[in-house]
Q: What sequence folds into this?
């Protein structure tokens, strides 16, 4: 019998344990104004890309409602020692329901099952234990399958009194249109460099990381602390930062950069480097396209993406793929 392991999501910096939030002040104020009006909508869609603090904001809003059942507060901040805050942190608040992919003691399921979504309906069928709000956090709606999405839709269509559903989504356009139409959307934005660094300095794995490495990861993350966390110790990210700082590419330099991706344990670094590279080429082509150029870079982008996919599919030499991609990039840059 296999030994059960802890849920890998239960880290010290889990969103429900974070009582501070960097950035997203406008979204918070919009929610607070709606709450003060006494006509708070029952379903909110918190959207944008992964790793920018959407779940942290969802728990912040839920914690606030659980701590302030009446409209008598001027800030979303709830003290860490508040009873509601402690219960949310410990995942023991009786009026908070979290809908996410289940963990069976061995692995996290690939999607949110319909029975889990129906659990939210059962939760809202009972009155609030503390006499205030009942809060459900969906983290994330992108993990719903067709059946569980329809179960959530039914709940959104028939909301109980003093209940709220806070839905995190990385790709709002992929959700059921009927779900989106019944929610108020809170689209977030990338964090500033200073806010991204502030988050990283509060997370245990990166709190003691050298300042240079943190700054490099934050700059490459484009305002996503979650992405920066993946990049901070990545050799692929460091090599891309070196490339970006000095984009002039001789064949000898292309070969030198590629050597890091020859070992068996280099696959993750290669994927990071490749992802950053194609993203940078796309952004550069887009910027130059605004002034009438960039066609050569756009074609180079498509050719490089195809080459990278072929390498993954056929298990080709990653080093040669990187050399070819960089030489193609250099030619496109010179021609544009």
A:
């Amino acid at each position: 019998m296999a030994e059960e392991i802890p849920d890998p999501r239960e880290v010290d910096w889990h969103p429900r344990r974070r009582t501070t939030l960097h950035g997203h002040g406008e979204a918070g104020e919009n929610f607070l104004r709606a709450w003060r009006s006494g006509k708070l909508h029952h379903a909110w869609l918190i959207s944008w890309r992964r790793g920018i603090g959407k779940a942290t904001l969802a728990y912040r809003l839920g914690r606030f409602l659980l701590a302030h059942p009446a409209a008598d507060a001027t800030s979303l901040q709830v003290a860490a020692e508040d009873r509601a805050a402690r219960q949310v942190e410990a995942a023991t608040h009786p009026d908070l329901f979290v809908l996410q992919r289940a963990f069976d003691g061995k692995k996290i399921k690939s999607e949110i099952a319909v029975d889990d979504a129906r659990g939210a309906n059962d939760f809202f069928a009972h009155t609030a234990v503390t006499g205030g709000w009942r809060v459900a956090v969906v983290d994330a709606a992108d993990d719903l399958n067709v059946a569980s999405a329809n179960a959530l839709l039914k709940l959104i269509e028939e909301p109980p009194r003093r209940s709220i559903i806070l839905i995190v989504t990385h790709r709002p356009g992929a959700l059921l249109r009927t779900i989106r139409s019944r929610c108020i959307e809170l689209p977030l934005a990338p964090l500033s460099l200073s806010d991204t660094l502030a988050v990283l300095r509060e997370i245990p794995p990166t709190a003691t990381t050298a300042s240079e490495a943190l700054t490099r990861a934050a700059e490459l993350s484009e305002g996503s602390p979650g992405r920066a966390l993946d990049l901070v110790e990545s050799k692929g990210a460091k090599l891309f930062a070196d490339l970006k700082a000095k984009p002039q590419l001789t064949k000898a330099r292309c070969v030198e950069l590629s050597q890091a991706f020859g070992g068996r344990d280099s696959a993750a670094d290669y994927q990071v480097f490749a992802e950053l590279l194609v993203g940078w080429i796309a952004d550069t082509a887009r910027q130059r396209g605004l002034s009438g150029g960039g066609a050569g870079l756009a074609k180079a982008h498509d050719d490089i993406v195809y080459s990278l996919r072929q390498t993954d599919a056929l298990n080709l030499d990653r080093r040669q793929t990187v050399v070819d991609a960089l030489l193609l990039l250099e030619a496109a840059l010179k021609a544009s």
About this structure: Residues 36 and 72 are 8 Å apart (CA to CA). The mean pLDDT is 94. The chain has 15 helices and five strands.
